[in-house]
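Changelog entry: the NAD(P)H-dependent oxidoreductase record was regenerated in this release. Current contents:
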Amino acid sequence: MKTKILCLSGSLRQASSSTAVVETICRDIGDSVEPLRFDIATLPHYNADLGQPEVVQAFKATVEAADGLVIVTPEYNYSVPGVLKNAIDWASRPAYESVMLDKPVFIASVSGGAMGGVRAQSHLKYILNGMLARAFVHKEVIIPFANKKVENGALVDEGIKTFLMEGVDAFVQSLRERPRQSLGR
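Regenerated structure tokens:
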């Protein structure tokens, strides 16, 4: 049985380095993993008055079906993009009983600058902690000057790609060794 990993890009841009990293992961992840995808741009702005629109239900069902998530976030103004936060807000409901409860998450970040999105990564871990998801503890994967390391929609820096995939492989292995534990769901 294949391990299912939902791979999310925190960017809407078609030529984004975040999406290129996600595409690289999905391409190189290996035959024993089924990468799942969801376009978070299709989600409406979070508003509890909307109830659970069909697209939100589909998103939450995809999160639920995944053994873990891989999130690649760019850094916008020292934090995560609004579109990624919006998706997380939808997935976090109902509070403390959501599809994110105890869900393992691997995080990588990109930036056009020297910091590689490390501040966004820190904020994302804090947000995930608040919804009781499990950020995977590993060496942080940050990709500085990311626009220079992407060509034709894929990550081409071999050193960073090797480091990234070592982290993703360790994440997948951890999912196989420690099945998801419920915190009351």
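The chain has one domain: 3-177.
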